């Protein structure tokens, strides 16, 4: 019972931090202005871990790859701690378990990124209906537009209603159901 609560706590806190680090990376990737209060919050929450890692992981192509490495390491710690608290026999599994745990961390990070795109798109849709003058609106718009823009070329407007967020939800769910789940099952099958 206590192990289950600890697993929940570790997964929740670890995933929230990994999302913040991924948001920081995506904001840099999509050139979101960092003068926004939400963007400044994300930088403030993640700066303590990203700055030291930049000394080890250099940036390439103008992107802060330390954020991606940090998010992956956090997910690796979450996966390992969850399996350990659940009673997985690491000592009996031997050295072959560590590449699987590293792979599971990659799969969980991809899954987390897809869920983040779904969540940001949902927030964008709600903000467009309710109140579009919040400090969050420009950040959410800039983070979701690279995913929605290509779909707008394919999906026409229906009665002045943009259906591209719905199409993006469906595509994200398919990504989670097909390649991500298949990769996770393949990794778990090798344990």
UniProtKB/TrEMBL annotation:
Keyword Flavoprotein: no
Iron-sulfur listed as a keyword: no
Top-level lineage group: Bacteria
Membrane spanning residue stretches: 6-26, 61-85, 97-123, 163-183
Pfam families linked: CCB3_YggT
Keywords: Membrane, Transmembrane, Transmembrane helix
Listed InterPro entries: CCB3/YggT
Family membership noted in the UniProt record: Belongs to the YggT family.
Protein name, as recorded: YggT family protein
